[in-house]
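Course assignment 3, question 2. Fill in each field.
Student: A.L.
Task: Predict the tertiary structure for the chain below.
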Amino acid sequence: MKRHNRNTSSIFPTLIVIYGMFFFIQSLTASAAGSLTSCDDISVPVMIKIWVNGVEGQKLEGQSATFSAKIAETADGVAKQSVVVPNPSNCCSNLSSQLNGYTALAPRGDCDYLVKAKVAQAGGAAGLVVISDTQDIVEMSCSEKSGLDINIPVVMISKLGGDALNKSLSGGGKVEVVVYAPESPLIDPAAAFLWLIAVGTIVCASLWSDITKINHTNEPYNQLSPKVEEEEENEIIEMSTMSAVVFVITASTFLVLLYLFMSSWFIWLLIVFFCIGAVEGMHSCIVALLKSKCRSCGQKAVNVPFFGTTTVMSLLVLLFCMAFAVFWVWTRKESYSWVGQDILGVCLIIAVLQLAQLPNIKVATVLLCCAFAYDIFWVFISPIFFHDSVMISVAAGDSSSGETIPMVLRFPRVFDPWGGYSILGFGDILFPGLLLSFTVRFDKAKKKTWHDGYFLWLAIGYACGLLLTYLGLYLMNGHGQPALLYLVPCTLGTCIILGLVRGELKELWNYNNNNNNNNANEYKQTPGGEEQA
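Answer field:
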């Protein structure tokens, strides 16, 4: 063993020298190559400013080729270039005339992307814009191993953008463009605000019973006064290990159906279901808050046809919630619609977390591990089988109609030159939220404080996991991330580690709410509003 160590240690200096010489030679090669491009260069998103007859029009988005020349990050100082359709228009063979500094506009197909770029450059073009045959913009790559002498920008735009350019050119207009590749800010304020919304929602939902707790002590009790509305206990759905597995399988099936049959009518169906659930959730949240502040507000009753007897307050709140949802649907494509969508979404999440509960950590482990695998598979692994990332494609919605699925929280990227929204799916709050709600009930049953309980540490773990999600999003150049990849270890992992350290893991694993229901009934209200055991 000692002789092996000596030989290994003597190899390290040799390897360092070899690697040093290798990188030195590589640097000399790169310097000699100058502006040579490569098929292995990074493709970047680009923006195209357009002028028609001197009037600036709408910007187009595109994607550069991997072998494209470097594109400026800003449009400042970049000269406008006139656009022409070459002859032949597919740019696959030698051009009949020199382009002399014009940007060539060519359709996708008939030959390789690299051939188009070489032909356009040989014809004197200052750039090449390839029009996709669909609304999707694909990455233009090549397979040559040696360096390429491509010194013009090569980008692809969608079919819709290409049709608009061709229409302007065929009408005799002068079309000019400037291609640039702006970078997104290092820190996205939209992600920070969305992080605050998500963390605030999961904490409020977990503590909702305490937030909306009705205070009886300040309210006089009249035993002879009629009760218009009796207190009703909320119906609770307690999940089992089987229902957890079935739920994730059902979610996967629905996701695939949505991916395969993505259309405006399918998204409209989701919008209807979302509004029904959100109205119910918003109604229950507002009524619970009003009752917690003013118990007498919910006493006056009214008979509603087909719905029976309800309180005036509940009816008015329901009408308000329905009007709010209708207004959001009507204005859902406006720039401010994200506010209404987030309000409805937060109310729906809070309501669901009051309705569904986990009985113990065993069920939580099954549910969150299945959700963990579900998120990773449909984001990272699904392209192997479906060509695209199913989760990311579904989140993008129907490109032809501009409709997007409503089951996400959104916040606009105000300071990002690309615009758009930072989004977070409801499942990234609901799945960890079920676990956090369980820890609140467990801490109460065991009379734990904030410090020696579980909820506080899992809430911190959730906040850290969401930060890691956005860090992964940044490190992977904006590629969609499966948030549960980070959230499950930071929440479920934290709970299991704390349980092991404290010697309570077995109790957490086999804990059953039904065995502790008597704790909630130990204290009963006396007519005077005092509690007695």
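Instructor remarks: The chain has 17 helices and 16 strands. Residues 1-19, 22-35, 217-233, 516-533 have pLDDT under 50 and may be disordered.
Grade: pending
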